[in-house]
What does this fold into?
Amino acid sequence: MADLSLKHVYKVYSDGTIAVSNFHLDIEDGEFVILVGPSGCGKSTTLRMIAGLEDITAGDLFVSGQRANMMEPKERNMAMVFQNYALYPHMNVYENMAFGLRIQHVDKNEIDNRVKKAAEILGLTSQLKKKPKDMSGGQRQRVALGRAIVRNPSVFLLDEPLSNLDAKLRASMRSEIRRLHNRLKTTFIYVTHDQVEAMTMGTKIVVMNKGFVQQVDAPMNLYDYPENLFVAGFIGTPQMNFYNATAFLSEDKVSFELGGYKLETSLETYPKLDKLTLLKNNQVKLGIRPEHMSIITKPSKGDVYLEAEINLVEVLGNETVCQGNIKGTDLPISIKINRDDSIREGETYFVKIDMSKVHIFSSETTNTLCPRIPSYNYVSYSKKGIAGLEIPESYQEVLKGIKNPSVKIPLSAICEGTTYKAKIVNKEQIKNKYLLTLELGNGVRLFKDVDYVIEGDTYTFDIKPEMISFFEDGEEIISSIPENNLLKGVLIPSKRPVTINGKVKKMKVFDYQIQDLVIRPNDDRVNKIYALLGKKFHLHTIEFSFAPSNVVLSNEGLKGKVEEILNYGENATFAKILVGDVHIFAKINSNETKVGEEVFVSLNADELGVRDVNFNVIIF
Ligand code: ADP
It folds into this structure.
């Protein structure tokens, strides 16, 4: 039995292929986890790194709390089952299962016990004398499973074990493997490219694409709450319909224009809608599952509908799938309804849309604009309940001149305190968190995520004023203090001794250069960056990040000039400093620093966040 943890794992093959990027996953002891995604997305590479058959380029693998990156495969006590069963053709079933134990010199009686027990679990007891060639594909795959079971591994790694079998056998082997897991209660990690297999087998599914984890979730959550366009399109058959649309927000409504139709609904339909992103760019991708539309004879008042020319009707027993295009356009549409024998190919029908089930994705990032845990609240500032925050005087002046300011309050700006008291009107469990809906009076509602159960129905809190920002008609008029300062830089060559795996070697490596400041990262950092970027490190643009509270003003570092002192109340004073042509913020002791003063910002090379801009990979 074992739990596993992969932390920021990368795999870069020697030809430069980045097969896996920033893979982050915790697997509990006894869990059944599925890695799913299209061919080439990095599933097998991930599994092989877990097994120890492939080196981990960067990041950490922990098995039962122990770092396992350098462990030999056999020390890991994992058993792998492949698509091609790789049975020995000249050995019978018994010998095939016993072989691995024999070479480990396991006692003969023990081998006999284990093989017979595995055979019993797999229903192979009567087949033990048979040779693989005399068995069906399903039976052979069972022998391959048996060979893994007899080893009593703490983790089973299964790499597309069923893809050589026909559809019917696959379905029955699926349930067999589930039953096996229920019986053995061991950790299973299962790789497949087949979404149906993933949805029916796993309790936790990791959807991957192009080496990146797209979403980790329970099957139905992937279906109900896809976090991006890729997951939305990957899960579900027939596939979700996708349309480019233009979104319009009004005080209480949102509408989408597509193919000459206007789909309008109350804003309350999407309480978690990321309005600010929508106001910045109103081009969206709408996702509508075929089963969330219905064919109606005539729209009633309030129905949201469009018209579709149906050119293909597939009757699948209890359901009917209609394919066609949105009337007057070449936009394809598929609609899945209960069996209806009256639908005719070549006819045009009214199609009603269940707007509460429509998915809205940013056309820029392809991420959902209705995340299950929103990152911020966006509410009117004028209404009582939120006003009265302690903000710098200069900002109060600005706000006086604004008619209807709105305020953006990140969920992370809300913390337990005493200033505000709200009624908890909803608690939603989302993975290991709870999302509270707080009502402040005057209709103002705020979301807040907490990672523990809150008893009762009131929540008292403070809002960190330095983290909020103000808007007028969607335009930012007062910014918050950023969570992180960002500065662009490069890696410049430097030849020096570096310690790699305990050995000192003189190597051509690099230092960080940020504007005219050169600083030296430690050898661990050098090793990781070098492993990821290789010899062409100098071609990469790097973004360095550091929190305002970590900025130290001293007599060396980046030269800057203090432009403004922002006072957000006790123990929250910040200096806005112009460094080159970039503003950074530093948390200061209010009486120490003055406007107009020249200062030096000193940076600790080993505490900086480092992101490769070209690869869009967060390295630290
Ligand atoms: P999957 O299992 O999802 O089909 P893989 O993990 O096998 O994907 O491969 C991920 C990526 O890594 C692919 O682009 C593949 O071509 C590449 N790859 C796999 N093995 C090697 C290798 N030995 N050398 C270089 N590239 C490789």
User: Anything to note?
Assistant: The pocket of adenosine-5'-diphosphate is lined by residues 13, 15, 17, 19, 37, 39-45 (CB under 6 Å). The chain has four domains: 4-231, 238-362, 398-478, 485-618. Residues 204 and 218 are 5 Å apart (CA to CA). The two ends are 31 Å apart (CA to CA).
